[in-house]
Known about the structure:
Elements: H1 3-6, H2 14-31, H3 46-61, H4 86-96, H5 112-125
Helix pairs in contact: 2-3
Amino acid sequence: xNFLGGGFVPELEHDSxxxxxxxxxxxxxxxxxxxxRDGGLDVLSAGDRExxxxxxxxxxxxxxxxxxxxxxxxxxxxxxxxxxxxxxxxDIFQKMGEDPSAEGYxxxxxxxxxxxxxxxxxxxxxxxxxxxPS
Length: 134
């Protein structure tokens, strides 16, 4: 099963969404930047970014969530975590803290990774959601 099938996107939409994705990828490639490390969809011009956001919103309706900022390492940059993959994950968790009463403990906010998680929660809470059957 492919990505779109995993979200139960109607099969008739797969080709058009695939073509749309390929067009966005071509625009990203034309920037010469690495979408994963150089800012995610922000590497695109305003109009192209809007088109990419539209695709992401369509996917979101089906419970398919795209990290628009690039790699996970783009989240919580203010904490200054270093490394990549598992090393970054260990560092970010250490910097976030584990004791809610400690100074510097990172509490959930309304931006960054927290807004991404809120989108997922919202989708799961919607009884009329598209995609994965409830």
